[in-house]
Amino acid sequence: MNKALRSSSFVIAFSTACAFQGVAQNATLYQQSSEVNNLMVLYDADRGSLSRFYAIEGSPDRRQRLQDLQNDYSKKLQQLKFESLPVGSKVDYLLFKRNMDAQLDLLREEEAEVKQLAPWFTFADKIYAIEKIRRRGYQQDAQKLALTFNSLASEITATSKKLDKEGGFDISLSRRAGSIVRGLQNAVRSVNEFYTGYDPAFTWWTPEPIKKLESSLNDYAKSWSQKEKSAPAGKDDGSGIIGFPIGQKELVRQLQAEMIPYTPEELVDIANKEFAWCDAEMLKASREMGFGDDWKKAIEKVKNSYVPPGQQPDAIMQLYDQSIDFLKKHKLVTIPPIAEETWRMSMMSPQRQLVSPFFLGGEQLIISYPTHTMGEEDKLMSMRGNNPHFSRATVHHELIAGHHLQGFSNNRNKAYRHFGTPFWTEGWALYWEFILWDLKFPRGPEDRIGMLFWRMHRCARIIFSLNYHLGKWTPQQCIDFLVDRVAHERANAEGEVRRSFTGGYGPLYQLAYMIGGLQFYQLKKDLVDSGKMSFQQYHDAVLAENAMPVEMVRAILTNQNLSKDFKTNWRFYNK
Predict the structure, then answer these.
(1) What is the DSSP string of 112-143?
(2) Whole-angstrom Cα distance, residue 511 to residue 426?
(3) Phi then psi dihedrals of residue 123, to 5 deg
(4) Is this structure's pTM higher than 0.85?
(5) pLDDT tens digits, one per residue of 288-306
(6) What residue spans define the domains of the chain?
(7) 395 neighbors 316 (Cβ within 8 angstroms)
(8) What is the DSSP code (8-state) at residue 347?
(9) How many CB atoms lie within 10 A of CB 9?
(10) Low-confidence ranges of the chain (pLDDT < 50)
(11) Are 429 and 368 in contact (CB under 8 A)?
(12) pLDDT of residue 186
């Protein structure tokens, strides 16, 4: 080969190698990034900086600055050429835009409610102005400030007395007022902590006036708290659980935002169809156990299989070992060794068991079981509700391949995606209950009853939570439904309903378990049952994309051609 030819061959070989290397680098890049990633990272950082600087909740300068931020980044996002993006980047674009639009809606809602409440906060701007000066550490006229504090305290006290005589307020306005007062309290506290002891004049003039101002704000906060408790939707029905139904319109809006194209009534219908399947399977198991069609007696026997106090952690460990062996034997999902190594156990406090009567999971498995401080009846109900057959259905839900593996994967795959939704988080964990049922993980009728109990429970969650938020059921009716229809222990049913409506969960959270699980299950049918993917390929692919609405997972895994004006349209339930 002559010198020129050798040189030409080298150039071709080098160029080809570089091309392959470039493809490999792009593939690696897209495992952790996208064309939208940089904007999202900058947005999160800017929002964090602004939120810390404009820290006073409800203040007009905070609201305006955050509105400007949303508008600025919306314009930057629009500059990306959407049509030329790969599908994963299109998903980032659509969800990032959705989140920013939602933030703008919340800020507009705040602005409208603050405007309605303006007559009750005529003093707020003076406090905001004092805190604004404090932020940069400017010295203030302490003697003048003391007079202002006294004047503000008197004005707030008078307003508070007027409020006490006023009629009822809409729950949203009462809550907004409470958040404004908290912001004002934080502003006054910020000023006091900054200057007292450091500024001699402030320390001389203001101690008593600022104490009066703080006291008046505390009383005003209590007045608004009473208004919130006395709101029409906030009455106690005898259960001691006071929640606030959001109504049909807001339910539909939130479902659309979560990319669930069903009405609340359609979701209740889905739950009833799934319940009918559970009923039929429960009767089969009950008959196998010799109880005929009296399935509640079969459940009673299963409940009484509980282990003695002190032995629950060991029982859970045995169930975990069986679950992890099953996952590996059937090659269902990749289990990183460190994920298997680093989960741990803790025990749940008696106080937390009032709202979480069953064990919880993630990197830490939190075991709910009686302590010596609980009454005898409560001890028995806790043990019965956490018996090994019930727990068999949820060990994999809480650990691997459920919540612990989810969290582990989210920290290592596309961690910039902050699109978390309970339809992904809880839906994925519940989906594994479907899969292990299909693959015969339950060993006999008692295990099947344990798994069916939880499946019925998730059907019930859809029915009682939606009926409650539609204004059709009270909390007590929800409790009774769980006891009568699912055979819950009453204390556990009360804890479940209390958790649902006062535990800080969103209105869609409890229905997201079954509905999200059904979404993943239908996607499994499309990709695994059709032979396009193995179980392991499908499950690994889901975890590699991080949390997002399941319809967007589907779009990525099926390489859909998404449009810029995408609207949810996946009717995933076909029974």
Answers:
(1) HHHHHHGGG-TTHHHHHHHHHHHHTT----HH
(2) 9
(3) -90, -10
(4) yes
(5) 999 999 999 999 999 999 9
(6) 1-32, 33-116, 121-234, 251-557
(7) yes
(8) E
(9) 11
(10) 1-25
(11) no
(12) 98
